[in-house]
Write a structure and sequence with these properties.
Layout lengths: L1 H35 L7 H7 L10 E21 L2 E12 L2 E11 L16 E9 L19 E3 L4 H8 L3 E8 L18 H32 L1
Parallel strand pairs: 1-5, 3-6
Antiparallel strand pairs: 1-2, 1-4, 2-3, 4-6
Length: 229
């Protein structure tokens, strides 16, 4: 019983410290985003040259000129906006011989899941500004099957390797999110940090409180048992 009590207590404490660590990471990223916002946008070549450095390329401002592929549109599913479900729209732009996936913004979906939103693809050459985002692939209950694709293509995850195979062209290992001031695209409602540091600290407090309550309960139970003996 003592071992079980300490295992649960240790787990709760560990979860609390994990949330504190996440809060610290979010604060660092906020500071980085603020610092990068004061910089001039980088060229595609400059961003590629910085890939692999300690701080990485996440959140770097970028400006590039290229031609959009109007034949292939990706719709990232299950993207909420103020209680409404919708999609994030992605297209490929080709610039200096490179293919880059561009997040064009959010569109509302239909209640009927078989009906996809009507998308007017971006066409022609454009000069765009945005921010680089490295893709974080979440947990998948089932692998995406992208064979026999029809366009626009609804996807559950942004998987650049699979997309590259599908279009028979290697995509660069990041996505560019358009700046909110860009005219092209759709509703630009993304947030670089979804959960702020304060919320992580709130969760940490909850875990530490649960740990204190648990150990207090077990001590009380042990005292009560000893009295009955």
């Amino acid at each position: 019983m003592v071992i079980f009590t300490m295992l649960v207590f240790s787990l709760l404490i560990k979860l609390g410290f994990w949330q504190i660590e996440r809060a610290f990471e979010k604060e660092q990223r906020q500071e980085r985003i603020q610092a990068l916002s004061q910089r001039d946008a980088l060229t595609l070549a400059q961003v590629q040259a910085l890939d692999g450095l300690k701080d990485g390329i996440n959140d770097l401002p970028i400006k590039l000129t290229g031609t959009f592929d109007a034949d292939r549109v990706f719709l990232l599913d299950n993207q909420p906006d103020k209680g409404r479900l919708g999609y994030r729209v992605y297209q490929i732009i080709e610039s200096n011989g490179e293919a880059i996936l561009i997040n064009l913004g959010w569109v509302q979906g239909s209640i009927d899941r078989s009906v996809l939103p009507k998308i007017i693809p971006v066409t022609g050459q454009h000069t765009i500004t945005g921010h680089v985002r490295e893709v974080e692939v979440g947990i998948q209950l089932q692998a995406q099957n992208l064979t026999d694709a029809t366009w626009p293509l609804r996807v559950q995850q942004i998987e650049l390797d699979k997309f590259s195979t599908l279009i028979d062209k290697k995509l660069l290992p990041f996505v560019v999110y358009l700046d909110t001031k860009e005219i092209i695209g759709y509703k630009k409602n993304w947030q670089p940090i979804v959960m702020p540091p304060e919320k992580h600290r709130g969760y940490a407090f909850q875990w530490f409180s649960l740990a204190f309550a648990w150990i207090s309960l077990m001590i009380w139970a042990a005292i009560k048992m000893n009295k009955h003996e």
